[in-house]
Amino acid sequence: MGLGGISIWQLAIVLVIVLLIFGTKRLKSIGSDLGSAIKGFKKAVDTDDDKTSDDAPQRLETDDADAEFPEQKKKNKSHSA
């Protein structure tokens, strides 16, 4: 048993048929195009991760560090008084 019930011989036959239909030159160009697309995708994901970490808003230090909104800050001060 191979992958999902497909034997090695069935995979070999499919590979031979694909080679006969497309030819080795076209498969080579498809493989290189696919490889460059994957490389470009990885590069874009890496630069996007770097960009989002640099663009993240910096949290300002305040006297009430738990308050995220001004309304919460007012409520917290009124409760503590």
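The above is record 1. Record 2 follows with the same two-line structure.
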Amino acid sequence: MKKNSIAIAFLLTTSSFATQATTTIDLQDFTGTLIDNKWQDFSAIFGPTAARTHSSAPYSTATTDGLGSVTLSPIVNFDDNSHIHVSGGDGDPATATTPFIHGDVGGVFIDGSGSHDTFSFQSMDILHSALQADGAVTSVNSTITVRGFLGGVNNMLTGITEVDDLSTTDIDESTHLLYKGGNQVASAIINNGFEGNFNFLTADAGFAEVDYVEFFFTDFYRFKPSSMGEENLDFQFDNIVIGEAGVSAVPVPAAVWLFGTGLVGLVSLGKRKQKVLTA
């Protein structure tokens, strides 16, 4: 009986590991056709440290534990009209809601706060990936690059520009809202034409703990392809799964469950046979 309990406890432990709490960005609660992240900059009038106003906030949703949030947004600067298109954004949980980007965005970022100030970036469903440039510019790399960072500050959410940082004299970045100060700890490449579930933890274990993730058309890092004449890129995605930092949620295959339950059965059967022989 003791061995049975051990086997069952093992299965329960495995189950809890496989079902550790995750948060899925699926936009089922989103109402609208576009996700923006726009700021009003008053520095030209009141000086470089003047207050900024978040005139159009990005999409944020509460994490499953209720102690944090996760944000999905286009990568933007001041006066930038980058946006994420949303299909089916009527706020109805029964309606399939799909985000997608074209050549009019320089990239997308995912950021966490609260209990998910650092998080595990796990997977994403990719519904369509047309990444081959066919406009005015020839794209050498027909891919999406995904990068994970740790230890920095995402000023695309704070409205702080490089010019606010007295330690830098990089005038070229004076109006840019950047993620800065962090180290790249993970990267992955999504190829043209890929469809299906992409597991980032399998691609790079470094995604198990990040504080900021971004993805972009590889040859146009933080730069709109449309500004170079490339309008036709198309990347559709959904069901972005994040979890607790440092925890890799690996689904337990059905075969493992069958083996485990079979093992418990064999142990029970062996005990019954032993009782018959010793009776």
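The first helix runs from residue 2 to 18.
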